[in-house]
Amino acid sequence: MKMQNNPFKSALKQGKAQIGCWVSLANPYAAEVIASAGFDWLVVDMEHAPGNEMDVLGQLQAIAPHTSCLVRPPWNDFVTVKRLMDMGAPGLLFPMIQSVDEGKAAVAATRYPPKGIRGFGGTSRANQFGRMSDYVARVDEETTIVLQVETREAMEIAVDIGTIEGVDGVFFGPADIAADMGYLGQPLHPKVWEAIMPVAKKLMEAGVPVGTLVTDPEKAQRLLDDGFTFVACGIDVGILARGADALVAKLKGEG
User: Which one of 15, 89, 181, 203 is at 20 to 30 Å from 32 when CA atoms are compared?
Assistant: First the structure.
């Protein structure tokens, strides 16, 4: 058995626009509903979602037949990363990277020695329980590593972070950037994007794929038109909540 190619990572390298969605309901059945909708990539969230590692495992199993995904660990923690890698996470989205050293530590957590510090387990879901003959040789090239820039401080060194060896893209977190700028709860505030866009352009010029999450579809499309490679345009929790709200409002004559 051979390791399969990671279509999302390949698309980033080729500069192909990729539309994504956040998976936060911490449930495999809900994850399958989103995964089969046609998105190019998903994020299984552990930072701001209630799921534990067993929940993530179920979500990975539900998503795998349909599309690619990243898992966002709660923090840049090498123990959690080791477990997620052994589960077969196709990629990782590391939150709140504030320095080059933190970015290098994130990459190192995904690499076996001598390139990193990932502990070796011979029989895991990642290598099909020991059946995948080329896993060790190919896992680095097939695992997507994306680092999140979420503060003004991090944006000042975003190009340095994005050009760390082994990093496949930089993801802007507009909600946290907005909070850091004094616009808490306003991720689409014009001032926030006035700050993000010049940094994003510098990353693009350096050949680093750039992504983000915005729940306004028109804004998402504009960002793709402006050169962002991967943009998440929805969150499963929000899709469910807004759909339920709209249905109730319509039937109660409030819509």
Answer: 15
Roughly how many angstroms between the first and final C-alpha of the chain, as a whole number? 54
pTM listed for this prediction: 0.97
Q: Which value, in Å, is the radius of gyration of the alpha carbons in the chain?
A: 18
Give the closest residue to 12 by CA, choosing from 231, 224, 209. Answer: 209
66 is catalytic: no
The Cα–Cα gap between 210 and 204 comes to: 7
Tokens of 251: 């039937």
Looking at 2, 13, 48, 131, which residue is catalytic?
A: 48
Distance of CA 87 to the CA centre of its chain: 16
| SS3 state of residue 148 | strand
Helix, strand, or coil here: 104?
Answer: helix
| Rounded (10°) CA dihedral 20, 87, 2, 16 | 10
Question: How far apart (Å, rounded) are the C-alpha atoms in residues 247 and 244?
Answer: 5
Inter-axis angle of helices 28-35 and 236-251, to 10 degrees? Answer: 80
Q: What is the tens place of the pLDDT at every residue in 121-139?
A: 999 999 999 999 999 999 9
Give the SS3 label for residue 5: coil
Taking the C-alpha atoms of residue 208 and residue 141, their distance in angstroms, rounded to an integer, is 16
**pLDDT given for residue 255 in this prediction:** 57
pLDDT, tens only, 147-162: 999 999 999 999 999 9
Which value, to the nearest 10 degrees, does the dihedral of the CA atoms of residues 188, 158, 53, 70 take?
Answer: 80
Domains in the chain and their CATH numbers? 7-251 (3.20.20.60)
| Residue 132 to residue 241: CA distance in whole angstroms | 41
